[in-house]
Design goal:
The protein is mainly alpha-helical and 152 residues long. It contains four helices and no strands. The chain folds into two domains: 99 residues; 52 residues, no CATH class.
Length: 152
């Protein structure tokens, strides 16, 4: 809507300028003829009045355009704020184990998960099953699933 108003204002200004140019040319053509000069003078007065009215309309629409732009910026800022708040909630939820629970428990859990992932990657790389992995580690199997009991 703002763009449409600006386009209309620009088109109207161009038409007023075209009228002024045309009337200036006709004024030169009418030099010496009182009737034609009077007609051109009357038309110039009408164009001046139209320019004054156009300037008033531009001021009004300028104020309106600024308000519309401000509303759009406020709405965009509001959306960005909502996105930021959502990201903050995600970050806060991710930090709950460290902030509200004991940090040691969080660190141990992540260390065990890292160790399990490394063991699983090693087993996959060497195509080992649990018994072979236990043998490679140098231990004896006492219960089924002992190697990956912690890993799930």
């Amino acid at each position: 809507m703002v763009k449409e108003l600006e386009d209309l204002e620009k088109a109207a200004s161009e038409q007023v300028n075209d009228c002024r140019t045309f009337l200036a040319a006709r004024s030169r053509d009418a030099a010496g003829d009182k009737d034609k000069t009077k007609i051109v003078t009357d038309l110039n007065a009408k164009v001046a009045a139209a320019q004054t009215e156009l300037n008033s309309a531009k001021k009004l629409s300028g104020t309106h355009n600024e308000k519309l732009r401000a509303k759009a910026l406020i709405q965009e800022a509001s959306e960005k704020l909502k996105e930021a708040e959502a990201e903050l909630e995600k970050a806060t939820a991710a930090c709950v184990p460290v902030l509200e629970e004991k940090s040691e428990r969080f660190l141990v859990k992540n260390s065990v998960a890292t160790m399990c992932a490394a063991l699983q990657a090693h087993m996959d790389e060497k195509a080992l099953n649990q018994e072979q992995m236990l043998k490679e580690m140098g231990g004896k199997k006492t219960q089924p699933g002992q190697v990956c009991r912690l890993c799930g």
